[in-house]
Amino acid sequence: MIDALRVFVLNRFYLVAALMGVTVVTGAATGFGLFYRLLYIFGIATVFGFLWNWMSVRSLHVEVERRSHRVRVGDDVEERITIRNLGSVPKPVLEVEDLTDLPGYSSGMAVALGSRSFRSWRTLTPARKRGVYTMGPVRVSNTDFLGLFRRSREFCGTDELVVYPRIYDMPGFSIPAADLTGESSSRRRSHDLSPHASSVRDYAFGDSISRVHWNSTARLGRLMSKEFDLGQSSDVWILIDLHRDVQAGELEESTDEYGVSIAASLARKYLTSDMPVGLVSYGDQRYYLPAETGSGQMDRVMEFLARSKAEGRVALEDALPLEEALWGYHSTLVVITPSHRPAWVVGLRELTRRRVRVVSVLLDGITFGGVFPTLGVAPALHEAGIPTYAVRSGDSIPIAMSRPYLASDAERARREVA
């Protein structure tokens, strides 16, 4: 819009210049005084328009209060802009615009300022896609009354806005546990040594020296032994397919946005339960986080997901062999993908033979406006014994992730594809 206006102003300036040239030539050829008077009028109007345009963007003060620096998809990005006329010359029309690369954001306003007056307004715009964006500077523009000149000034600095993916509670989703000693999905007392010491008790005959809790022993004056929990499940890995050729949809209604929201939700679910969670994704670059626990890991997951872009060149079937060394019999892998290619199913089948617990989440690309039937691979996943969940555009993610995609659903999808 702004570029089109600039072209319009430039074309109008050339038109006035051409009219002045024709007036000069015609006046010289005919000697008729009216043409010279027109020339004077054009010249005075042009000079006056230039001076008026120059003065309109002078003596201005702009303040910007950006209250949003970290938001999630769907949250409002809040901003307040205040512009003041410090001079005595009125400014009848000023165009004020915050320059930003945030998708769908618009804070443009046309304001009129009297002598030594001000205008202030607040904007609320929903964040529609995860990412890291730049807010600012604020550009104030003006044209003269003839539209011959356009002048702009930029005020204030820039701020970084990070838009994180949306997070959902997923109480109905569960993953198969590895059931290793010291590593299970439930907490219960264990007679074996594990990393999870939960309490102390009086020393019993037969307890090994390694079980003695020396701090409690010194404090109480008698031998005390440590009690252990069986602990939490083994590490959970989340693999998000951000290959650009299989994505569909736009902004918040896109496969990559649904995928990262599911990944963030699963990460929070299991990190809250003190399970180690790792992340792998091939987007505009390789994103890798080793499996760890704690709130700091959740912050790192959100930061990685916010910065990831669905511009990957590595397909899922190629990423699996590149990363297979990360997963062993103690690992659970959740694969989130809109890919319709059967080759990656073969890769997951090989992982299950190595006793890796695998869960797949299919993002149905057709419902996002794509052309490939993602659910066509569901029958092969069921034959491989891989639990599968299906998510379509417009679905409630917590509800979709609470019910596995059954074999009967897969068979119906197979018939539809055929």
How would you summarize the topology of this molecule?
Layout: H1 2-30, H2 33-56, E1 60-66, E2 70-72, E3 76-85, E4 91-100, E5 109-113, E6 118-126, E7 131-143, E8 150-155, E9 159-164, E10 189-190, E11 197-202, H3 214-220, E12 224-229, E13 236-241, E14 249-250, E15 253-254, H4 255-272, E16 277-282, E17 286-292, H5 295-307, H6 316-323, E18 332-337, H7 343-353, E19 357-363, H8 378-383, E20 388-391, H9 397-400, H10 407-417
Parallel strand pairs: 2-9, 13-16, 13-18, 18-19, 19-20
Antiparallel strand pairs: 1-3, 3-6, 4-5, 4-7, 7-8, 7-9, 10-12, 11-12, 14-15, 16-17
Helix pairs in contact: 1-2, 4-5, 6-7
What are the salient characteristics of this protein?
418 residues, alpha/beta, Rossmann fold, six-stranded mixed β-sheet, 20 strands
- Give the fraction of residues assigned to helices: 25-40%
CATH class of the largest domain: Alpha Beta
Shape: elongated
In the CATH hierarchy, the third-tier topology of the largest domain is known as Rossmann fold
**Please, what is the oligomeric state?**
single chain
Structure description:
The protein is α/β, with parallel strands linked by helices. The chain has 3 domains: 1-164, Immunoglobulins (Immunoglobulin-like); 189-229, no CATH class; 236-417, Rossmann fold. It is built from 10 helices and 20 strands. The chain has helices at 2-30, 33-56, 214-220, 255-272, 295-307, 316-323, 343-353, 378-383, 397-400, 407-417; strands spanning 60-66, 70-72, 76-85, 91-100, 109-113, 118-126, 131-143, 150-155, 159-164, 189-190, 197-202, 224-229, 236-241, 249-250, 253-254, 277-282, 286-292, 332-337, 357-363, 388-391. Strands 2, 4, 5, 7, 8 and 9 form a 6-stranded mixed sheet that branches. Strands 17-16-13-18-19-20 form a 6-stranded mixed sheet, sandwiched between helices. Strands 1-3-6 form a 3-stranded antiparallel sheet, with no helix packed on it. A hairpin with a 6-residue loop joins strand 7 (131-143) and strand 8 (150-155). It starts with a helix and ends with a helix. The model is unreliable at 4-10, 179-196 and 229-233 (pLDDT under 50).
